[in-house]
Description:
Layout lengths: L5 H16 L4 H21 L12 E3 H25 L5 E5 L5 E4 L1 H17 L4 E4 L18 H6 L5 E3 L3 E9 L1 H5 L7 E8 L2 E9 L4 E6 L3 E2 L1 H10 L8 E6 L6 H9 L3 E6 L2 H9 L5 E4 L3 E2 H13 L3 E3 L15 E2 L3 E4 L3 H16 L1
Parallel strand pairs: 4-6, 11-12, 11-13
Antiparallel strand pairs: 1-5, 2-3, 6-7, 7-8, 8-9, 9-10, 13-17, 14-16, 15-17
Helix pairs in contact: 3-4, 8-11, 9-10
Main location: membrane
Pfam families: Inositol_P (PF00459)
Subcellular location: Membrane
Amino acid sequence: MSVISDEGKKAHKVKMNLGASVRVNRCGLCALVSVLVIVMMLYQFGGENEVKSDLPPEMISLKSLLSAAIDAAERGGKNVYDVRVKAELNEKSKGKTLENANDPVTNGDIMSHRTMFQSLQRAFPSVKIISEEKDSITSDTVDPADITRQDIGETLADNAFVPAPDIRVWIDPLDATQEYTENLRQYVTTMVCVAVKGYATIGVIHKPFEHYTAWGWAGKTTSPDLQAAVAQGSTSSTGDLTRVIVSRSHHGEVSGLAMSAFGEKTNITYAGGAGYKTLEVIKGQADLYLHITRIKKWDLCAGNAILNALDGKMTTLDGKVLDYGSEAEYLNNGGLVATLHSHAKYLKQVQEARKTKTE
């Protein structure tokens, strides 16, 4: 007859309890499986970074964003200016355009991009920023863009707030790079545009070699200097002469189209930079800016926004308003007609000329 000590009985009891403790709780298991299935579905169909938060989106002050856009354009312009003056361009080619023209990039483009992109990103980390240039270098010396410029505070009393997901900021760190390499400084600009739900709302065009900045906010106002230039340009009369400004390096067959549309009394000016050409229209130095080949939206958005602020218009050759809501759709293949006045008239003449050429 075996005798089990008290300690042995306790150990035996613990062992038996351990063996009996492993049980399947069906309700708990079902709950666990359900949670895992939901997580897997969210990952598969929404992406791990696309799981929506219950928190409301950040509301962005457009007045602060305008201030930052001006600051970024002017700071990028200083990079452009310094590189050109020092003649340290280090020019490279990104390839050829459809018109077989060289598409260059320089140190001016890259340095300006870094300053503009990073300063805006640090001031508004929740806002999507789209730039012509791509560069992986992050500089610790780039401060956030100034969101409280005194001149903006004095010019604008009111404000507007927009959810961050509705905003796209388009920047062109150096417009007219080809002319920049040729030292044709008058055509060079740096540009920032704020699009709200695809609509060009705020535009900034800075001319670094003239230390001049024009800006406009659709539905609000434009920079005081630009208002004066528009007023002065509106007093000049050209009679029956139609003044058309076109690209000097990407013009295609635009000259022939202009002559067909407006007849012998057509004055054609060849110029570099979409920003420059749009400003010439705004200032009354040209009646319309005409373009018939493809063009990228960072070239257009800022000028488009300023025209919107002045009740002007920029459309494709088919009369469609440009949409700036998608980075993937950065190319405008529909040509361009930009005017401050009489857009419907000029557009109709261009369309009729195009129709005649295809018949």
